[in-house]
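Final report, closing paragraph on structural work. Over the funding period we assembled a curated collection of sequence-structure pairs, and we close with a single example.
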Amino acid sequence: MKKFIFDARNGIHIIDLSKTATQLQAACNFLSETVRKGNSVLFVGTKKQAQLAVKETAKECGQLFVCERWLGGTLTNYGTLKKSIARLKEIEKMEADGSINQYVKQEQSMIRREAARFMKYLDGIRSMDRMPGAMFVVDLKREHNAVAEARKLKIPVVALVDTNCDPDQADFPIAGNDDAIRSVRVILAAVGTAITQGKAEFESKKSRKPQADEAPTEVAAPAAA
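Its predicted structure, as stored:
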């Protein structure tokens, strides 16, 4: 991280914010383009300082998130994860139609505990029907398992990188303090705005496409007649 550090005072490294701004702009452009192409972004931040901010940002821009423990194989063993998500949806359906009442109270309690466990870890990725187009990580060091899975599957990694991390582990590192809530929120706000804009452009393009497909048919109809 030496090239991103402005100075060191009293044993504290001060990050060069001009470089952070450049990196943040590059990361935002990349994430916006990723979403504009119809891909999703998976936010990962399980440390206490980042959990709430990661969850809120991901929900605001309609993306996937993991803010509790990263379950090994979330990406590399997606088939097993899919079964767990299907089970969660099955239990929710049982609750909705009342079929859970067919079980005795003890069994109902066990089923509900199972659903609560699934909700805790899988709620943010329950809509993931294919691999994300990118991963945004808060604290590369802590989320090394998630980063390793993403790199194995060649999923680009964008990360908030502190001075104790290796920036080469991320395709788009953003030098910054990953321990301060305010710092994490500032970066997430910028990233969330870029993704929201990219998603809006994708939705707009998607809604215009059917109209473009219908137009030639309307023109061609009189000629055929």
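The chain is about 55% helix and 15% strand. The mean pLDDT is 86. We thank the funder for supporting this effort.
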